[in-house]
Structures are given as C-alpha cells and as structure tokens.
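Trying the structure run again after the queue cleared.
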Amino acid sequence: MSSGIKGKIALVFGASQGLGEAIAHRFGYEGCSVIACDINKDNVEKVAKEVNTKYKVETLAFNVDVTKEEEVSAAVLATVKKFGRLDIMVSNAGILIAEDIADFSVEKWRKVIDVNLVGYFICAKQAAKVMKEQKSGAIIQINSKSGKKGSFRSSAYAASKFGGIGLTQSIALDLAPFNVRVNSVCPGNLLDSPLWVNSLYEQYAKKWGITKEQVRQKYIDQVPLKRGCTYDDVTNVVVFLAGEDASYMTGQAINVTGGQEMR
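Done. Tokens:
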C-alpha cells in the first residue's frame, strides 16, 4: 500500500456495480474507510459488506439518489459524524440514454443532465462544505471520453460530460484557496463492464449484422494501444488523484483511453 491514502475516508457515489464498485474495492484495498452510496440499496449494501470483509476496513452504505440534495447531504453528514472528516469524494453516478436528436424526448434528455451533471454538482457541493472547513480534500468526477468529443446519438450524455468538465474546472478555482483539489477522469470504452457485456455488444451486433466478437474487435481497433479500458486502468488514476502525489493537480480532465482521445 504505497499510494499514500491509507486511513483516508473515501465516499463513492454510484458504487453498486461496475466501475463504481471497482473504485470502492480499490479504496478498500488501499486501506481507506469506504462509504458506498447508490440508488440501488441492496447492491450498494452488498458492495460495502464485501469491501469490509475482504479488506478489513470500516464501511458504510447509503441508499442515495444523487438528484436529491437532501439524500446526498444526509450521506455526507453521516460520514462526518462517524469518521470526523471526509478526505475523498468520487462522483460516479450516471446514466446513458441514446436517441437521435430528432426523436429525443425533452424528458429523457433532461433526465440524463439531471443525473450526470446536476447530480455531480450536488455531490460536489455537499463535499465542498466539509472540505472547505477542514481545508483539505479531493473531489474526483468520473467523466468520459464523450466529455472531450461529441458522441453519435448521445447528445444528452456528451452534453452532460462536457458540462462536467466545465464544472470541475470552475469549482477547482472556487476550492483552490482551501487546499481542496477537483479533477475529472475520462475513461475509454470499458469493454468488459456490465453495460457492454449485458447490453451493448448484442445491440450493436444486431444493428450492424455482425457477431458480438466482431463488435468488440471493432472498438478495440479504434484504440491506438489496441485494447479496451479496464477498471484497473481507471482506478489507478483515481487513486493517484486522491493522493498527495497529485497535490499540484487541480481542474484537470485526465484521459484514460489508450490514446483514443488526446485532447
């Protein structure tokens, strides 16, 4: 455990599955106390229990809808009551709804913005209240390569992620005088994640008339390093940004895309 975050208090929103679950586990591995929050109550409680059992660290679990400020605030306040501080907050909760612009309902479009952008704002706001007082902390948003480049039939998702980077940069300026750092991580395609394995491969295979294996290869071929993004690729960067080795980094949006996105 050489990351320098052992003993830190880490709060993860969107922690019940996939990348968020992997982040919770990684913080546990690094010796952090882990507070896992998600709209899926059963899953997030399971994740917290697994992290506690596997890494022998303290954990809490909260059922939280990130679009509801009172629920986010309650989780942050409960964390501070239990541990006395909050060192790391990761905003990972997000949704993706893909529609052609001419067919995209305003209701669905707003929902994506509400979860991905307003939800991040709410989580960052509540974490900032604590971190400003203690004059330390790291806020990390899980963004996307779609935060750097528009995405086909995903105008709401891309808009939410472009907005997320603007929010990261702006609140980094707000919080810099208080020694609180704010950064985003922009992963590439997590080709072994539940979203791809349980949904996207089959959708794209039917759409393009090819096999699921050919769909996977199509996406790998778009990456200069010729492989998909893994959870470890992302959590390595998250841990770095959370620790003192990144003490001179704030307002950044770090690509983890194997060279697919370089802006």
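Strands lie at 9-13, 33-38, 59-63, 88-91, 137-142, 180-187, 253-256. Worth checking whether this holds up in the mutant runs.
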